[in-house]
Amino acid sequence: MMLVQQTDTLGTANAIIVRDKSGNNMAGFANTASVTLTYDYDGNNQRGGFSAGNNAPITVVAIGLNNAQYVKTTGTIARSVTNSLSLVAPLERNYSNP
Fold first, then answer.
1. How far is the C-alpha of 70 from the C-alpha of 77, rounded, in Å?
2. Which of 18, 29, 38, 71 is the right S-S partner for 89, CB 3.0 to 4.6 Å?
């Protein structure tokens, strides 16, 4: 799973992996039904000086295991204690690895 800032830059050299409140990239394994991440809403300035204290547009990208496809969704990190996005990967029907 990876969270990328600025939804129009995914797949380009300008894509920015979102940092959590400790400054670590929000990327890794999501091995449960729900993942909790932290974000420094008032201190994150990855998109330049105007971004701290403002909503952050994001794209969440994941690849499922055990026959699931790549999936992505867009959303916004807003000033809230809970921001939710749902990722549901369909069953991979085009690839077989016997």
1. 22
2. 71
Count other C-beta atoms under 10 Å from residue 5's C-beta. 22
What residues make up the domain containing 53? 1-98
Identify the burial level of 3 via C-beta atoms within 10 angstroms of its C-beta, where 0-12 means exposed, 13-18 middle and 19 or more buried: buried
pLDDT digits over 36-84, tens only? 889 999 999 988 878 899 999 888 888 777 777 778 888 999 999 888 8
What tokens does 6 get? Answer: 């600025």
53 Rama sector, left if φ>0, alpha if ψ -120 to 50, beta otherwise:
left
| Confidence (pTM) | 0.75
Q: Which residues pair with 61 in a beta bridge?
A: 2, 72
Dist. CA 82–CA 86, nearest whole Å:
13
CB atoms within 10 A of CB 53: 11
